[in-house]
Structures are given as C-alpha cells and as structure tokens.
Amino acid sequence: CFNILPPLPTTDDPLGQIFTKAFSFNPDPMRISAITPAILGLIASVNSYSVEYSTETGYFLQDESSTDPSTFDYTTVNFGLINRIYPADHHLKHAHELTQWERFYHQVQKLNKDSPSHVEYKVLFLGRHGEGYHNAAESYYGTPAWNCYWAELDGNSTATWKDAALTPAGINQALKAHTFWQKQITDQRIHTPDAYFVSPLTRTLQTANYTFTDLSLPAHAAPFNPLVKELFREGISIHTCDHRRSKTYIYNLFPEWRIEKGFSEEDELWNGVTGRLVLRRMYGVFFTNEAKKDDAFISITSHSGEISSILRVLGHRTFSLSTGAVIPVLVRAEKKGRDSKPVSSTSVAWEVSPHCTAPPVTSVSACVCPSSAVPVTTPLVTDL
Predict the structure, then answer these.
(1) 90-113 burial string, b = 16+ CB within 10 Å, else e?
(2) What per-residue confidence (pLDDT) applies to 375?
(3) What is the number of structural domains in the chain?
(4) Domain-embedded: residue 356
(5) In sequence order, which ranges of 28-80 are alpha helices (DSSP H)?
(6) In this structure, are residues 197 and 227 in contact, taking their beta carbons and an 8 Å threshold?
(7) pTM reported for the whole predicted model
(8) Backbone dihedral region of 214: left (phi > 0), alpha (psi from -120 to 50 degrees) or beta?
(9) Strand 119-128 to 326-338 pairing
(10) Cα–Cα distance measured from residue 231 to residue 238, given in angstroms and rounded to the nearest whole number
(11) What residues are paired with 53 via a beta bridge?
C-alpha cells in the first residue's frame, strides 16, 4: 500500500535508539518503531554494540547507476550478476568449469573465511510480492482517490483488498519467479537460499509459496521452510491492505510453515485510524541464530516499502521493484565496540489521517471530497 512517512521523532540519540538491535547479534531483537529516510543510516546500536552496515558494490547490475530500475528485468540477466573475475577465482583449480553463480558463492565464502569474527557477509534476495488486488485497485482508481477513500474500504463490488490476495497477474509473476529460480538451479547451479523469511500478509505468503514450493533443489540444499515474521510486513497505514489476518488463518493456509515465537493471534499493529511505521527492524535476524552464520544466502519475501527501507539502511542506491521482482544484494556487517549509553526503544505514531466518506469528486492530482461528505478520521469499515 502507499504510505506516507511519519514526522521525524525527537530523540537524544536518534541513530542509537532507532537502530537498536538492527542487524543484532542478539537472538531476541526488540521491536522499535518510527523512522524516516532522514534518519536512516549505516550505524545500528545493538545491545551496547553498534553494527556498521554496507552494500558491497561491483557484483550486481542493480548496484550500477547506469541500470534503470523501471526497465530492468532480473530474469533476463542472471539475477543481475555481473560477468566478472573474482579474487577468489585464483584459489580454484578449475574455475573455468564453474558457472558465474558458483564462482560468486565461492567468493562470498572466501570473504567470510578471511574476515575477522566481527565481520560477516551475506547475500539477501529481496523479493517483492506479486500484484495484489490493492495494487490493481490503486491503478484503477488513481493514487489520490485510492489514498483518501478506496484504500480505507475492505473492497468494492468485485474485489476485496483487505489483506489483499494475489490477482491472476500476481500469481503469474510469482510463477515466473519460480520458473526462473528453477532455470538458475539447472543451468547456473546457483546456491539456493539457506534461510527463508516472509511477511505475514496474504500476498507475500502466496508469493513465497508459488515461487519456492516444488522447486527441484540441489542435493544438501536447505528445504523451503520459511519463517513468518510479523515485522517484515509493510509499514502500517490506515489502508485495509495493511491489516493482516489472524495467526490461525496463516497456520491453516500453510500449516507446515514456521511462525515466529510471540506472534499475536490478532493484528495488534493496525487500527484503521492512525498509522505507524514500525522500524525496519528485522535486519538483525540475518545475523542472529535465526539465520545461522553459515547461512550465506537468505531469501526475504516482503513489500516495496519494506524493501526500499532495507536498501536505504544498507547504503544501496534507490532501486524500485515492480510487483513480483527480486533484487540480490551482497551485504557486509561489521560489529563495532561497546557503547556506554543505554539503549532504549522509541515509537512515534503517525498523525491521524482524514479521508472521505464517499468517492472523491477530484482525483487526478489531489483528493477532493464531495461537499456532502465531510472528511473524517474514523474507520470507514469495521472488521468482518
């Protein structure tokens, strides 16, 4: 869903508080909320430690300023992996017999092997969900009308977009990703993800399922057994597409999948009145026991806003993903020394957002409510 970022929080140490336990080496990261692009950075205070985070460029076309995100198709260019020689190639007796992805995996292993204990390298495959009914509705009504009226409804007479499911086009996008992954496994002998994480919203659950289920994985590959993480979801707005369904619903949909400990039965973050941007907060799981140190390749199926935020934290150039697209990133994390300041959490709610109680009369570039429908700040719908 389309979200507007909250106001800048006032803190004595915004970086230290906002990035508390981000990229944490502690196995139980806390929840923190409220960030803006102005205070996204590369330093995270972590349980009295700080972790410096960066993208290792020169490996993927998506790293290059000359690559246009609006026309880029990851399935036509080997996930964007640049055809190049790696320093680690010199340690391979038969490097010329290996594929680009096999040599790249060896390069990542060599980086980790040669690094001190406080430095780790991981490759994140950040996948956006396929087209959902909320995406289709926003395209149909236009963004202004969507934001000020339609997004606050559960749906219309033909579609439901509360915790939106995939459209047929979205399913095809996920199946396209499935086909591409299988081709990479067969032709490139790519190292498949060692760990899988997924947002709890229906569209991401479905995307991960269509993408990874029934792949012919290499021998000894980690099975597709994703962990559903609450805080990999999209930033919380008043839009109903951000309202997740119950834990029981998720379990019944995919009973073999794992759901993180402490996952609430009902959605405790969405209320339909105020929005909250829960801190891009789950980065720490990549460097905790939820993603083991040897787990070099990690898949995350999430949302456009969440992925954009992750890329900003990593210092990656802005790279918008179309629905169903995937971007790989080679990440370096370095744990720094102890911080003498105690770490605390912070949470800043969005301001209440007025919206129309009837379809707007003007929506080309702005939302104008009809004179008979005074804007309100109360929910337009109640839970069904």
Answers:
(1) eebeeeeebebbbbbbbbbebbee
(2) 62
(3) 1
(4) no
(5) none
(6) yes
(7) 0.81
(8) left
(9) antiparallel
(10) 17
(11) 333
Residue that the structure tokens 């970086």 belong to: 15
Q: Is residue 117 part of a domain?
A: yes
Question: What are the tens digits of pLDDT across the range 76-97?
Answer: 999 999 999 999 999 998 888 9
Are 247 and 261 in contact by the 8 Å Cβ rule? The answer is no
Contact between residue 354 and residue 374 where contact means Cβ atoms under 8 Å apart:
no
| 148 phi/psi in degrees, rounded to 5 | -95, -5
CATH of the domain at 123: 3.40.50.1240
Q: For residue 249, which of 302, 196, 201 has the smallest C-alpha distance?
A: 201
Across the chain, the runs of DSSP E, i.e. the strands, are: 43-46, 49-55, 119-128, 195-198, 227-228, 258-259, 297-302, 326-338
> What's the CA gap between 179 and 174, in Å, rounded?
9
At a CB cut-off of 8 Å and minimum separation 6, what does 16 contact?
Answer: 45, 50, 339, 341, 343
Q: Which helix (H) or strand (E) holds 103?
A: helix 100-114
DSSP single-letter state for residue 144: H
In this structure, what token pair is assigned to residue 318? Answer: 């802005």
Task: Give the catalytic positions in this structure.
Answer: 129, 234
Residue 111, both tokens: 């980086």
Q: What are the pLDDT digits (tens) for 225-249?
A: 999 998 888 777 888 899 999 999 9
Residue whose entry in the numeric block shows the structure tokens 């899988």? 196
DSSP 186: I
Extract long-range pairs of 374-378: CB within 8 Å, 24+ residues apart.
375/148, 377/273, 377/352, 377/353, 378/273
Spatial distance between the Cα atoms of 97 and 375, rounded to a whole number of angstroms: 66
The span from the CA of 220 to the CA of 190, in Å, is: 13
In a domain, 151, yes or no: no
Residue 375: both structure tokens together? 């804007």
Q: What does the block give as tokens for 80?
A: 């964007």
The answer to whether residue 153 is domain-embedded is no
Domain span at residue 202 reads: 14-131+166-338
Strand-pair partners of 290: none
Strand order in the sheet with 119-128: 43-46, 49-55, 326-338, 119-128, 297-302, 195-198, 227-228, 258-259
